[in-house]
Design goal:
single chain, alpha+beta, eight-stranded mixed sheet
Length: 654
């Protein structure tokens, strides 16, 4: 208790320091001087060059100066983020200039190299809009890009490209203000091979074939795109490959490779229902006009990515029965919480993800007409949160909702904390207000901050003001804001957290937990119809069973997994946990051939970090040399973000 109280007091002191300018704060993850300018538009002109594994072309930013002060000398130059970018030329208002430099002296291994562009007096002394055009090409190790050889695709005939800009990788795609705070509309012109289809996180406005401007003997595809709604740099996305499309509704469709697209369309058939249900809950129409799902090759490092107009998803969701399509509901929810209302810096990532988890669970329960799924899925989320806090350490500041990220790569801070701890904080507020008033708060939050960015302190002020208006100042919200926002771990939350967890409905969870305990106590198939009970469970319930079995030693792990064919399951959520269960319980020693083959098969056929990182960590504990050798073999299969994080994990395990 003393330790928790001391931690809470330290959190309050930390909060007092960090709220010096909590309503508008600097972004420590950008080297740009974005705060000096208004960014009105970004335009990209890019050639996809598969043989050279690069994008080549130009980025044009339309900006204007913000209000100046006497001490505002920095705005005589525009400083943009870059990383592994080769700049060929810079033009200001159409005039080529030599007054620019890639400032390696002030560069950073993680945050890149600032591009400093001196502005003519006619520009920096005026409040008028101006254009900066940078002609460039991406570097060999651009972290936003993954170039996939034909052998890494389903069809095996053509290469594939996709980008992943979250969190701070857009600076390796194009020179930019790479911060969530700098939102603007953008457009793009993409030149790609004639056989390919290019897609962007924007509305396609044209697509034609024409002679190549650089080689008239060849023909190329020229595609143009426009995103009229302001969005942050991390939401810029490009994909290019041999793609086919199937419509799901007048505004929703699925893209993927020709041999995959039918399975993907079947798996994600509920997309339109997710969209319309989200509109009902938010009381705001879907703002982005069209909604496409692109099912990517298996090296995509995340479950999904909420790029506007173009959700990226992993093929690990293709379970054959739609049971993992909740990820699509999550990415659709981001169309409101994250894409419309955006965290101003990565310190406030929980505002994107905590709200999205809440909205996702509301959408799924409404679509499936099973309200108890909300609490069941929340219980699974608690298990995932517990595991990640254990991995980081209860006292690690990165387990706070608002972690201090100065000098920290946001990728290193990535965990379930902003998702599940953020969700629990919002659920705590909902329980304090009541569901009806909380829904009013949510809708007012969206209406107030759409097309803007927000910090945690601004959210705090909004909630306090909203509650005072609705209930009167004498009925203030009983929430310990400083502890929830700034204390690490979960123990410091104390009684409110315990009560929150205890209040979750256990109707669905209890049956699953009883099944797990039957296996644990009997050490074999439960005598009271274990097979029938397992077969009647949903994926969420089965996940809860496996999570419970993972909590303590479970010697019959291999027998359990073989009983239900979990090591061969098409459902990756189940197969991943089954492999973790076997590894943790010594099955690599008792069944070395089967377990090693199953682990290596999963690690070599997908690159989703949710599965890949924990599997490598656990495999390394039991067979360190084998894990390192496998990673050395597969390193180039994985996306650069995944490869970077697995390498760090293996180094720590060693």
């Amino acid at each position: 208790v003393r330790r928790c109280c001391g931690r809470a007091k330290r959190a309050v002191r930390m909060a007092e320091v960090r709220r010096e300018d909590g309503l508008r704060e600097a972004d420590s993850a950008t080297l740009s001087n974005f705060a000096q300018f208004r960014l009105h538009r970004l335009h990209l002109e890019l050639r996809v060059e598969f043989e050279q594994r690069r994008l080549a072309g130009a980025a044009e930013l339309t900006c204007s100066r913000r209000a100046r002060s006497a001490a505002d000398d920095a705005a005589i130059e525009c400083v943009l983020d870059t990383r592994n970018i080769k700049v060929h030329a810079v033009l200001v208002n159409g005039e080529r200039t030599s007054s620019w430099t890639l400032d390696a002296e002030h560069g950073h291994e993680v945050f890149g190299t600032p591009l400093r562009i001196a502005l003519p007096e006619s520009v920096y002394s005026s409040d008028e809009e101006f254009q900066i055009r940078i002609e460039y090409e991406t570097g060999e190790n651009a972290s936003a890009l993954q170039w996939i050889a034909p052998s890494g695709t389903h069809g095996g005939e053509y290469p594939f490209l996709f980008t992943q800009c979250q969190a701070i990788h857009a600076r390796s795609l194009a020179p930019c203000f790479d911060t969530p705070a700098a939102k603007c509309p953008y457009s793009a012109r993409i030149v790609s091979p004639e056989w390919s289809t290019a897609l962007c996180s924007a509305l396609m406005t044209s697509s034609t074939t024409a002679p190549d401007e650089l080689d008239a003997s060849k023909r190329v595809k020229i595609s143009t795109f426009d995103q009229p709604i302001a969005c942050s740099s991390y939401l810029i996305a490009i994909a290019c490959g041999q793609l086919s499309k199937i419509d799901l509704s007048p505004r929703a469709c699925v893209w993927s490779e020709p041999g995959v697209v039918a399975d993907a369309a079947s798996e994600f058939a509920a997309a339109e229902r997710f969209l319309s249900t989200a509109e009902e809950i938010t009381a705001l129409p879907y703002a982005w006009t069209s909604y496409a799902i692109l099912c990517l090759p298996p090296s995509f490092p995340y479950g999904g990515m909420e790029n506007p107009c173009l959700t990226f998803v992993t093929p690990t969701l293709l379970a054959g029965d739609g049971s993992l399509a909740d990820v699509v509901a999550h990415e659709i929810a981001h169309s409101w919480t994250g894409n419309l209302v955006t965290n101003s810096t990565w310190n406030h990532f929980w505002l994107n993800e905590g709200w999205t988890m809440w909205l996702q669970r509301k959408i799924v329960c409404a679509v499936k007409s099973k309200p108890l799924l909300f609490d069941l899925d929340a219980r699974n989320g608690i298990a995932q949160l517990r595991d990640d806090i254990a991995l980081f350490g209860e006292d690690n500041v990165l387990t706070a909702l608002c972690p201090p990220l100065s000098g920290v790569d946001p990728d290193d801070a990535f965990s379930r904390v902003p998702y599940e701890k953020g969700f629990q904080f919002l659920l705590h507020i909902e329980r304090e207000l009541g569901s009806e008033l909380f829904l009013q708060l949510f809708r007012s939050y969206l209406a107030t901050f759409q097309n803007k960015t927000i910090t945690s302190e601004r959210f705090r002020k909004f909630v306090v003001d909203f509650v005072a208006e609705k209930r009167g100042p004498q009925n203030a919200l009983a929430v310990d804001w400083d502890t929830w926002l700034y204390a690490p771990g979960m123990r410091a939350m104390g009684k409110p957290y315990v009560e929150l967890v205890s209040a979750l409905d256990g109707t669905l969870a209890d049956a699953a937990l009883k099944f797990a305990e039957s296996w644990r106590s009997e050490g074999e198939l439960p005598s009271d119809g274990g097979d029938d009970r397992w077969n009647s469970m949903s994926t969420v319930e089965r996940v809860l069973v496996l999570e419970r079995l993972l909590e303590c030693p479970f010697p019959p792990a291999m027998a359990f997994c073989e009983r239900y064919d979990l090591l061969e399951s098409r459902n990756c959520e189940l197969r991943f946990r089954a492999l973790m269960l076997c590894l943790k319980n010594g099955a690599l020693a008792t069944h070395p051939t089967k377990v090693r083959a199953s682990v290596e098969q999963m690690l070599s056929t997908q690159g989703r970090m949710k599965y890949t990182r924990p599997l490598y960590r656990e495999y390394s504990k039991h067979a360190s040399d084998d894990a390192k050798a496998l990673f050395a073999k597969l390193n180039h299969f994985y996306h650069p973000i995944c490869a970077k994080m697995v390498a760090k994990d293996l180094a720590r395990t060693s």
